[in-house]
Amino acid sequence: MLRKILSKTKYFLIVVLVGVLVLTLFPTILDGGSAEQVQSFVTRFYVQCLGRQPDSEGLNEWVGRL
């Protein structure tokens, strides 16, 4: 029983440690980027996936969400 608890605890601690390291070493994961970067991304998505330029209402909506 103790062995199972230690095994589960060990894996939990490993997951927590990896999470902390990722968030510490790569803080841009949580940062959505500048408004210009997000707008550029959304515009590229519209052009490449939808085959058209974004309308201003849709562009503003998605930039605000991201």
TrEMBL record:
The chain crosses the membrane at residues 12-30. Keywords: Membrane, Transmembrane, Transmembrane helix. Pfam families: DUF4214. Residues 39-66 form the DUF4214 domain. The keyword Transmembrane helix applies. InterPro entries: DUF4214. This is DUF4214 domain-containing protein. It comes from marine sediment metagenome.
